[in-house]
């Protein structure tokens, strides 16, 4: 079991440009942080441009224990605080638009029955 003590699992995160967020890319085995960083850099220098790399030893990452995850559950009913988005607005706007009168309909109320094929005198031109 000497290999388990010598090599450690590292998680590699990269950032493609200065405005993007870090994203997890892969895991690797290395004897220490320095070698893990060199291995991560070698991998990215051959594949894609990045502006920054983070290498984190997996054992240094803290996660919640199963019994602690219960603390994440909401104790009260405050669903009004959750953002559902504005997807319903499109349907609501469509319904509103169907109720709005258009210009042609309003103009038809004026009693002008000539239509588009009639001349100003009101007689048919043939």
UniProtKB/TrEMBL annotation:
Transmembrane stretches, start-end: none
Highest taxon of source: Bacteria
Pfam families: PaaB
InterPro entries in UniProt: PaaB (IPR009359), PaaB_sf (IPR038693)
Residue span of region Disordered: 107-126
The protein, known as: 1,2-phenylacetyl-CoA epoxidase subunit B
Gene source species: Heyndrickxia camelliae
Encoding gene (name): paaH
């Amino acid at each position: 079991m000497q290999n388990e003590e010598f090599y450690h699992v590292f998680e590699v995160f990269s950032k493609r440009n200065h405005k993007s967020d870090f994203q997890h890319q892969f895991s690797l085995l290395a004897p220490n942080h320095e070698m893990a960083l060199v291995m991560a850099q070698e991998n990215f220098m051959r594949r894609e441009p990045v502006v920054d790399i983070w290498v984190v030893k997996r054992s240094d990452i803290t996660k919640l224990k199963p019994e602690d995850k219960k603390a994440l559950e909401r104790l009260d009913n405050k669903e009004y605080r959750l953002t559902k988005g504005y997807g319903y607005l499109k349907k609501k706007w469509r319904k509103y638009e169907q109720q709005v009168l258009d210009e042609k309909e309003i103009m038809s109320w004026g009693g002008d029955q000539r239509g588009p094929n009639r001349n100003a005198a009101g007689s048919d031109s043939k």
